[in-house]
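hey can u check if this looks right to u? its 196 residues, i copy pasted from the old doc so theres a chance i mangled smth
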Amino acid sequence: MRPDLQSVLLFYLVMLIPSYELVLDLIWGDKYYARMMHVSGVISIYLLVLSLAITPITLLIKRWPWGIAFSRWLLPRRRYIGLGSFYYACLHLIHYLREINDIENVFYEAFDFELAIGWFALLILALLAITSNNASVRRLKAKWKQLHQLVYLGTALIFAHWMLFDFFPDQALSWLAAVIAIKSIHFGFRVYRKTP
């Protein structure tokens, strides 16, 4: 595989490209707030769904000769994509905090159900991001995998947060259906492998 495709830095830079508008707005503040919240939230969810899809994708493509090599390239990048999702979730939070611009209001709004589940989802993503490194894998051992199963709870909370804020939740429901399909494929492969 080409050396540039192996570059972790290049992979991160590609994921950062869509954030240029979000970052510039934090400097200049000349964009529509609702758009910035929508863009940052949706990109975070897209990356999260992609990270969840990688295992089923690799299980499907490993049946072909070219798929084995591609799977070896793709699987380690699941962690990078998850970190990218957390990065956009942080931009989502920063835009929200800048708009409210009052820590007391932020605190009281956090008790609203649709915002409370967003905070819980962000805490889960933060925990997963903090432990998305080889040192944590070695230290936590078998518990690391159990901890990272929280991604499914975090995903459910994120979609609930999205649908409660969206006047037209068709897009959210479509992506939720994609997550369910991805998990169903993954579960199907696990059952198939256990079948004698």
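Residues 3-194 form one domain.
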